[in-house]
Amino acid sequence: xxxxxxxxxxxxxxxxxxxxxxxxxxxxxxxxxxxxxTRLFHIGPLCGVTTFGAQEGRGFLHVLRKGxxxxxxxxxxxxxxxxxxxxxxxxxxxxxxxxxFHNAPTADSDxxxxxxxxxGGANHPLISTLxxxxxxxxxxxxxxxxxxxxxxxxxxxxxxxxxxxxxxxxEVVLIQLFRWIVDHPDELALSSGLAAALSDEHLxxxxxxxxxxxxxxxxxxxxxxxxxxxxxxxxxxxxxxxGQPPAEYLAGWRVTVAQDRLRTGxxxxxxxxxxxxxxxxxxxxxFTRRVGHSPRAWLALQSDP
Length: 305
Hints:
CATH topology of the largest domain: Jelly Rolls
Distance between the termini: 72 Å
Low-confidence stretches: 1-20
Strand content: 15-25%
Oligomer: single chain
Order of helices and strands: HHEEEEEEEEHEHHHHHHHHHH
C-alpha cells in the first residue's frame, strides 16, 4: 500500500511539473527577437556527394520524407561525424557548418532544403546553445505533419505564389521544431543551455519574465522570487543549466533586444530607457563591452555591403 501511495504521489508530482512548465508561453518572447529568413532553395534528388558550405549567420533545414542518405560534417574535436538516415527525417543545422550528403536522395525521394538566414548573425541565445546538428525522425514530432503536408503540396505543384508560400511554411516548420526542442531537451541530450533551462519548472518562469521585461530593474533577489527559489539555489541552478550567471545572461539578452531595436530604427536614448539603463552613455558602455563596438558603430557595420 505504501508503495502504491509513493507511486501515485510521484506520478502526480511529475504531471504537476510538466503542466506548470507548459502552461505558459516560453517561446514567443524569444522568437519575437529572432529575425530569420527561411528560403526554399532545392527540391527533388541530389547527385553524388552534395556539399553545403558554411556562411556567417546561415543555417540549414532539410526535410527528407522518403528515401535515405548519409550525412557528414566535421565535429568540434576535428573528427568526421557520419550519420546514416534511412527514415523520414528533419535535419536542422542552426549555425554555420559545412556538411555533405552522400548517396543522396534519388528521383523517387521527397526531399527539400531551405536556408535559414539569421539577421545579424546567429548569436540569439536560443540558437547559440543548440548542438551543431539536430537529426530528428519526423514521427517524433506529430505536429509537423500538417505543415509538411502543406509544404510538399506547394512544392509538388507550380502555382502562383508557390515559392513565397513554401518559404513561409518552412518558417512554420522551424517554429514547430523549436517548440519540440524546449519540450524535449532530454531526448537531444541537452543537459545545459537555454532549451534545457526553459524545461525547468522554476527557471522557466524567471527566464520568461526576463525575456518579456528586460528593462525591469532585475536583481538576483527579484529573479529568484520569480523562480520561487532562494537566491543561492537560483544562482547555482541557473549557472548549472544556462552556463553563465543570471546577471551575465540578462546583460546578453538586453544586447540582443537592443540590436533588434537598433535595426528597426529606434534611437539610442529610447533603447537605453526601454532597457532600464540610467542614461544613454551607460547603455552605450554596456553595449560596447559585450559587442566591441558602440551601438551606432555596430549599426553602421550592419549596413555595410
